[in-house]
Amino acid sequence: MSSAPPTAAPAADDAPQTDGSKIKTFISILRKFIGVADLAAVRFSLPAQLLEPTPNLEYWNYLDNPSAFAAIGTSDEPLDRMLEVLRFWFTKDLKYVKGKPCKPYNSCLGEFFRCNWEAEDNAPRIDTKSLSVNGAAPGNGTISSASSVKSAKGDPRASSTVSVVQTATNPSGPTVRISYLTEQTSHHPPVSAFYVSCPEKGLHARGYDQISAKFTGTAIKVSPGEHNLGIFITLEKRDHETYQLTHPAAHLGGILRGALSVSVGDMAYITCPKTKLKAILNYVEEGWLGRAQNKVEGVIFRYDPDNDTKVRIKDVPDSDVVARLSGAWKDKIVFTLGPKPVESHPPERQVTIIDLNPLTVAPKSLPPKEQQAENESLQLWDGVTQAILSKQFSKATTVKVELEERQREKARERERKKEVWKPIFFDQVTDKAGKPDLNDKGRQLLERAQKGDWSLEGII
Q: What whole-number distance in Å separates Cα of residue 371 and Cα of residue 382?
């Protein structure tokens, strides 16, 4: 059994800290771990004043814009469906575009989180057949009619967009319900399983969340852990067509400047063996003089699932390319058809697949407090959260340390009894294929959530 993780001392008083003083304290703790291979595996405990009052399982979800997820699988054309998946991909971490990075609570073994989203069912259809590759202007097809009003700046691309829109906090138009369940299935290493369900659209997504983190002295590099093989999205109404979306490594920088920011400088891959289409996304971390540009370029091409050797954009021959993408992952991304570079096409041929500027993180529908289990994230961490919100940081740290010690005692008790931990809602703790399966309890919980029923009776 591993020894207890190092715990930072509680704050001497409850005086509120500025962002700058928080980061200085954070750095002083991190310096103890320079050279440690994986910070995430160490699971060190931060004082409460350095944490955001958010459970980890609530924070790590990919439905920041659920409308983009609900629109996957709408088109009959394989290329269009790949573009639908990419549109979702660029919205999944909207929290980093619209807000600052934060450190949520570490998850406890057996902790779970569930919620619904009432997603606007208004994403414009992607219909690349309405575009021609030879440079002629698009007709009045689905794409060109997606937005009939040009922007105030007169951007010609505003009239050629398939970007998701966000009409209101409380939409008055049609909506679709998406249900989400995640559980911490392993503590050493820290791994959580998740499942997203949208029966009305015949969609589900699943995967394992696990990160590997290393402090270099100036930044923290965050990479997928060995059990994190990405997000697996299955289109049930398309003969269970499945897309694997792998996560790129990211850097949490700005530590020395006192202004935390997320940058990405790595490759991401989206593959669909059934349609034999693959996308490579190349994230460019730094620009001229070290200024982050948040650039991303991509290519969609035909590939052989049994001989998948293309890992860089330049490896892909033009004869296999069906579309290219370009833009900034914190701003706007466009695509063009055919092998030619995006910039070689006139603006009216560059279709906006996503414009993140008008979007905000979608609100969740949560179970009422009286219907939450004691190991449900919002209930489990409620004492810590309330103390942080009331700026009683010493109390919050004390409550947090007590909670973590109770979890360690449960682990010691299981070891004494030689009991093997089993997840509550999933079949596997981890899985080499990266695709967790719900057990009967998990399926029942999501079926109830789809009906707006948060009851746990007969389940746990």
A: 14
How far is residue 143's CA from residue 133's CA, in Å, rounded to a whole number?
14
- Tokens (6 digits) for 117: 């989203």
As a dihedral over the C-alpha atoms of residue 412, residue 194, residue 358, residue 23, rounded to 10 degrees, the angle is 20
Nearest-10 crossing angle of helices 382-389, 393-417: 170
What does the radius of gyration of the chain's CA atoms come to, in whole angstroms?
A: 23
- Cα end-to-end span (Å), the chain: 28
Nearest residue to 117 (alpha-carbon basis) of 47, 175, 199, 34: 175
State how far the Cα of 227 lies from the Cα of 430, in Å rounded to an integer.
7
CA distance 144 to 115: 35
For 85, the 3-state DSSP assignment is: helix
Dmax over CA atoms of the chain, in Å, equals 73
Which of 448, 423, 194 has the alpha carbon at shortest distance from 456?
448
Residues 15-49 pLDDT 10s: 555 555 666 676 666 666 666 666 666 656 677 77
